[in-house]
Design brief:
The protein has 269 residues and is α/β, with parallel strands linked by helices. The chain has one domain: Alpha/Beta hydrolase fold, catalytic domain (Rossmann fold, 3-Layer(aba) Sandwich), CATH 3.40.50.1820. The protein contains twelve helices and eight strands. Strands 1-2-4-3-5-6-7-8 form an eight-stranded mixed sheet, sandwiched between helices. The protein is globular. It starts with a strand and ends in a 6-residue tail after the last helix. The model has no long low-confidence stretch (mean pLDDT 92).
């Protein structure tokens, strides 16, 4: 793990792995998540790509900054980190809120992005969740491990994964309850999330784009993948059967293979 000061008062923690001089693949995580959630992708892609996985501002080892926050601000953070590392262009893979950051990055700095992967994400609000589910997802009330397992975990992981990996899911819930995000941090990230809307701007994207979704996603409507792919020129959608919102974890083999083929310019189904 390394830390870069990208501007006064703002440090970004990041992981960088893979051969120097290789094409760069940036992995952008979702709300209240940390770079360690990409471990399956880092291990898979680091042989061929220079893999960069930062913690978004306010999360993990990055600075908690109590100031108004928009999705474009977090996209600019990634650009400043790329500048710090001397990276001119990169493939970008964004997950959930990270997919929204990735959209802003490609829209605002199109010459810095090679290929774009958007997973379990949307152009704005594309969820059927009610207020109790949103409150649980945002960690609004204090929660116990049992409460987290009952109300939050079903939103993040599909039923097949929860059943097969019950021990890992419980360990995840315990870690989240014992080490919750800083309240200022989570509030600022959700502030950016709620104000985000890229729908009208998407047709201006000119990057080859892969849109991924889990068929059992309880947070973002899986049908949204097709809508994004129709809206973005030169985009294709892949819906992964049996996977929930955390598709990159639940179906990592399928996701990694699809992304690998896509980055190589091959057909993806």
């Amino acid at each position: 793990m390394a830390v870069a000061t990208i501007r006064p008062g703002l440090d970004l923690s990041y992981l960088l792995d893979g051969p120097e001089g290789a094409e760069v693949l940036v992995l952008i995580t979702g709300a209240a998540s940390q770079k360690e959630g990409w471990f399956r992708q880092v291990r898979h892609f680091r042989d061929r790509y220079r893999v960069l996985a930062p913690d978004n501002r306010c999360m993990g080892g990055s600075s908690v900054v109590d100031e108004p926050l928009a999705m474009r601000d977090m996209a600019e953070d990634v650009i400043l980190l790329l500048d710090h590392l001397g990276v001119a262009r990169a493939h970008v893979f964004g997950m959930s809120m990270g997919g929204k950051i990735a959209q802003e990055l490609a829209l605002g700095w199109p010459d810095r992005v090679e290929r774009l992967v958007l997973a379990a994400t949307s152009a704005g609000t594309a969820s059927a969740l009610g207020e109790p589910e949103w409150a649980a997802l945002r960690h609004a009330p204090p929660v116990t491990v049992d409460d987290y397992l009952e109300r939050v975990v079903p939103l993040l992981f599909g039923p097949a994964y929860r059943e097969r990996f019950a021990f890992a899911v419980e360990a995840f819930a315990r870690s989240r309850v014992q080490r919750p995000p800083h309240p200022v941090a989570i509030a600022r990230q959700w502030e950016a999330h709620d104000a985000f809307d890229s729908w009208e701007r998407l047709p201006s994207l000119r990057h080859p784009t892969l849109v991924l979704a889990g068929a059992e996603d309880a947070v973002v409507d899986p049908g949204n993948a097709a809508r994004l792919a129709e809206r973005i020129p030169d985009a294709r959608a892949v819906v992964v059967p049996g996977a929930g919102h955390s598709v990159h974890i639940e179906a990592w083999r399928v996701v990694n293979q699809a992304v690998e083929r896509f980055l190589a310019g091959e057909s993806v189904r």
